[in-house]
Write a structure and sequence with these properties.
single chain, mainly alpha, two-stranded parallel ribbon, 11 helices, 41% helix, globular
Length: 285
């Protein structure tokens, strides 16, 4: 499924392979209940891992929407509606967390490289993959592909609130999800990236003996076992200081206001906007 979304044209859902994949997913249904499919790699939003040439020719959000539309029309067929829910997170935290999650794969990674890449992102968002953190773009693009009622954005910052799970349960027609108990799970406890403080994320030390992706493919084709060494947490941290946070918030403020108008969500006080009195001019995103 993931490989079809990531490495094939949306036209794949017109083919025998695409229809067979849809049938495999449909077979997962129990008692005719809706199937929930979740995978963070259905789209390529890892903007810190992509080369500039690749970024300039791809909008990950548009590509995902095109796939979902084609999947619904040509592969899923009469099995029911196809819907999409997703979580958004304030842009400064999302960018820092994403970088810390994959920094061991970024050449020359560290605080200076992160700030350099953020500078490039804010200077030219489309050329650097900035569509993935323009949340109004998500809402509009997915609604055009699936219909307004088939798209539900939720706030990561409200993940533990019962109302979030109630909305998720109603949208998915899975009432048991509204009973999910998150009271004993602190925010971020299950996250892949550990914060060392509210404004700092621990970076990773590149694994010793790591083989390139191409090298791993060649070994697998030769029938040889491949073990990927795991990166270890280093003592270094990525710090999101107040000035950098404000610059990111200001750059995406217009996009976030449009997101609020489109969805009715309220983002104030959740890290999406600069603190009152600290606003600065920024280009529209």
């Amino acid at each position: 499924m993931v490989q079809l979304f990531r490495r094939r044209s949306p036209s794949v859902w017109r083919t025998r392979k695409g229809r067979a994949t849809a049938a495999e997913i449909a077979a997962l249904a129990r008692d005719d209940r809706p199937v929930l499919y979740s995978h963070e790699s259905l789209y390529h939003g890892k903007i810190f891992l992509q080369g500039e040439r690749r970024l300039q020719v791809r909008d990950p959000v548009h590509l995902l929407a095109a796939h979902l539309s084609a999947f619904a029309r040509h592969a899923w067929g009469g099995r029911g509606s196809v819907r999409c829910l997703f979580f958004v997170r304030n842009q400064p935290d999302w960018l820092a967390s994403m970088y810390a999650q994959f920094n061991d794969k970024v050449p020359g990674s560290g605080q200076a490289d992160f700030e350099r890449q953020v500078d490039a992102l804010l200077a030219d968002p489309p050329a650097r993959g900035g569509q993935v953190v323009a949340y109004d773009h998500w809402v509009v693009t997915l609604a055009q592909a699936l219909g307004e009622d088939a798209v539900l954005p939720l706030l990561y910052e409200r993940l533990q609130e019962p109302q979030t799970w109630a909305r998720l349960a109603a949208f998915t027609e899975r009432p048991e999800l509204s009973c999910t108990d998150t009271a004993d799970t602190p925010p971020g406890e299950q996250a892949k990236v550990r914060r060392s403080s509210p404004d700092a994320w621990r970076l990773k030390r590149p694994a010793v003996g790591r083989i390139s992706r191409q090298g791993r493919k060649l070994l697998r084709r030769a029938g040889l076992p491949v073990q990927v060494p795991k990166a270890e947490t280093s003592e270094a941290s990525l710090v999101m200081d107040a000035a950098l946070r404000q610059r990111i918030q200001t750059a995406y403020a217009a996009s976030n206001r449009r997101f609020e108008l489109l969805t009715g969500e309220e983002l104030a006080g959740l890290g999406y906007y600069p603190a009152p009195g600290n606003t600065a001019s920024a280009p529209e995103t």
